[in-house]
Design goal:
Helix content: 25-40%
Strand content: 25-35%
Number of helices: 4
CATH class: Alpha Beta
Largest sheet: 6 strands, antiparallel
Number of strands: 6
CATH topology: Heat Shock Protein 90
CATH superfamily: Histidine kinase-like ATPase, C-terminal domain
Shape: globular
Distance between the termini: 17 Å
Order of helices and strands: EEHHEEHHEE
Number of domains: 1
Length: 142
């Protein structure tokens, strides 16, 4: 798998930064061939992950980049922080589990929205989430 160009970095420390990350991701995804509802799914996944950064780590970053694997093009989103980490990752990845009292799909929702999802978290050191979404390839069969 190879990168298709320069990465876009968005520092995350407020709700405004979440909006910026969503906008940057939508713009990049469009250039990679994503359309319609796929753009919405990508933006929603970023919202969930970036909201966790703001609420729990206070600050972090989201790195957006185009990726290619053979004829497939996609977007990779890496969200990382140096916050408190997640003490019980298995529990945090269960649908319906929330440490906040608000609506949202959280980590499991972001995983469900994307094609590939990986999370690494160390208590006291921070969390890194890597998500990938592949663009539909018209005229190709898998």
């Amino acid at each position: 798998m190879e990168s298709t160009g320069k990465d876009v970095r968005v520092e995350i420390s407020s709700s405004l930064d979440i909006v910026t990350a969503r906008q940057e991701a939508r713009a990049l995804a469009q250039t990679l061939g994503f359309e319609g509802s796929e753009l919405t799914l990508i933006a929603a996944a970023i919202s969930e992950i970036a909201r966790n950064i703001v609420d729990f780590a206070r600050r972090g970053e989201i790195i957006l980049g185009g990726i290619q694997k053979g004829p497939r093009r996609g977007i990779q989103i890496v969200a990382r922080d140096q916050g408190p980490g997640i003490p019980n990752l298995a529990k945090a990845m269960q649908y319906g589990y929330s440490t906040r009292r608000r609506a949202g799909a959280g980590l499991p929702g972001a995983k469900w929205l994307m094609d590939e999802f990986n999370i690494q978290s160390n208590v006291g050191k921070g969390t890194t989430v890597t998500m990938k979404k592949w663009a539909e390839q018209l005229g190709q069969t898998e």
